[in-house]
Amino acid sequence: MRRVVITGIGAITPIGNTIKEYSQALKEGRSGADYIKHFDASKFKTTFACEVKGFDGAEVFGRKEVRKMDLFSQYGLVSAEEAVIDSGLNFDEQNPDRIGVIWGSGIGGLRSLEEQIELNSDYENTPRYNPFMIPKMIADIVPGQIAIKYGLMGINYGTVSACASSSHAIINAMDNIRLGRADIIISGGSEAAVTRAGIGGFSGMKALSGRNDDPSTASRPFDKDRDGFVLGEGAGALILEEYEHAKKRGAKIYAEILGGGMTDDAHHITAPHPDGLGAANVMKNALLESSVSTSDIDYINVHGTSTPLGDIAEIKAILKIFGDDAYKLSISSTKSMTGHLLGASGAIESIACIIGMEEGFVPPTINHFTDDPEIDQKLKLTYNTPEEKQIDMILCNTFGFGGHNTSFVLRKL
Amino acid sequence: MSSAAEKVKKIIVDKLGVDESEVTTEASFTNDLGADSLDTVELIMEFEKEFDISIPDEEAENIQTVGQAIEYVQNEVDN
């Protein structure tokens, strides 16, 4: 079977707008949470989020183009550009039919939809919906935009599985390269749902933390007093490339993606299975497909969103699959720093894994104050400070509303 | 220049992201100002909103230059 490696990374996140900044923040254990700036959230039950900072789309894309792109597309293109540059690829020297884009977003261009509904809410007059509303909001527009920018004519589509979207994209990209349908695929995901409907909707589900008096400590996975996730935004991009193709052009190879699992809980539209059944199955499948054993894994980057039920279910699943090996490996949730980027989380978290592999550290689970008696404290959950460690093999978990579970294995080469 | 003409030009500058100096009477939206089919639909819609008029599709097809837009809008406003 053709092997698949990662040869480029790019990210724009609430804790850093480039890989360099992101990497620094992961090491420092910095929180990206603050009061919402995108709109006046003062009347909402949750008034904070993990927003991207210091980003001006008009400056990057120009006044004309920026109006035609929702923020989630802008983030996507920015991260893809960083990854392409990082990969050293010159698309003029490549066959465009053999290069694709598979990209995830759970929500799509929510703000673009909201804005047009607001403008057309006077139902007495003829509605004048902007012709760019649909192409701005559809969740699959980012892979289309990336293809146009670089002239990539191979396989191209979006994946939608809520918070597992970009992990499905990455696994699909790996599979399509394995099957010989493409030699290079730009994968990853983007999200920009810090909007009135986004905050209002997730808040209405009681999914969000309400710690309005102290936003920066609100995302506290595994802490006894965790009270929901903190909504994040941004994008992550990875260049997946067939191993021989990468070797031949002398590319820098960050890691090999060995295999992945995809399952469903078949339990509830939003709540995780209480015993983490689907999560356990997906980790087992990822390990099996990768032909590695539980003792090979050095680090698990967990989904760990900081919700009361989800964190416990995932820990149960890890203990079920890993047994005693669970106590030897390191575990952390980088969502404690970035917040929950929904469909982009698998992308930025696998990039956090790659950064950890490159620089020899496990990013921390920040904001740990009080142990939760329901969580086995013999596990190494990397509380508050990063752990210096040589990491050769990583499992990266992502789960989404709808019961979707994904997990994949990265190996250092 | 009439205020209608100024407003039309302002909309074009704003929506197409072009320089004011490029927005000459003869300038064609698609050939000179880089508009695609969706841009032209948006422009017509903006004129409708700004001047509170309704431009039927068959009339909109004939509005392809800055001058034609100004002329159409001016006529509608005058009547």
Number of helices of chain B: 4
β-sheet strand percentage of chain B: under 5%
The structural class of chain B is mainly alpha
Helix content percent band of chain A: 25-40%
State the order of secondary-structure elements of chain B, H for helix, E for strand: HHHH
- CATH class term of the largest domain in chain A: Alpha Beta
> What's the total helix number of chain A?
14
- Structural class, from helix and strand content of chain A? alpha/beta
Identify the overall geometry of chain A.
globular
Main sheet of chain A?
10 strands, mixed
Strand-and-helix sequence of chain A, N→C? EHEEHHHEHHHEHEHEHEHEHEHHEEEE
Output the radius of gyration of chain A: 20 Å
The major sheet of chain B is characterized as: none
CATH architecture of the largest domain in chain A: 3-Layer(aba) Sandwich
Annotation, overall tally of beta strands of chain B: 0
The oligomeric state of the chains shown is heterodimer
Approximate helicity band of chain B: 55-70%
Strand content of chain A: 15-25%
Strand segment count of chain A: 14
Q: Describe the strand arrangement of the main beta sheet of chain A, using strand numbers.
A: 5-4-6-7-1-8-14-13-9-10
Which pair of chains forms the biggest interface, and how many residues does each contribute? A-B, 11 and 12 residues
Explain what the structure shows.
The complex is a heterodimer of chains A (413) and B (79). Chain A is of the alpha/beta class and 413 residues long. Chain A has helices at 19-28, 57-61, 63-66, 71-87, 110-119, 133-137, 141-150, 165-178, 196-204, 243-248, 277-290, 308-322, 335-338, 345-359; strands at residues 4-12, 34-35, 48-49, 99-104, 156-159, 184-191, 234-242, 255-264, 299-301, 330-332, 361-362, 387-388, 393-400, 404-412. Chain A folds into 2 domains: 4-248, Peroxisomal Thiolase, Chain A, domain 1; 261-411, Peroxisomal Thiolase, Chain A, domain 1. Chain B is mostly helical and 79 residues long. In chain B, helix 1 (3-16) packs antiparallel against helix 2. Classes of the chains: A alpha/beta (413), B mainly alpha (79). At the A-B interface, helix 3 of A face helix 2 of B.
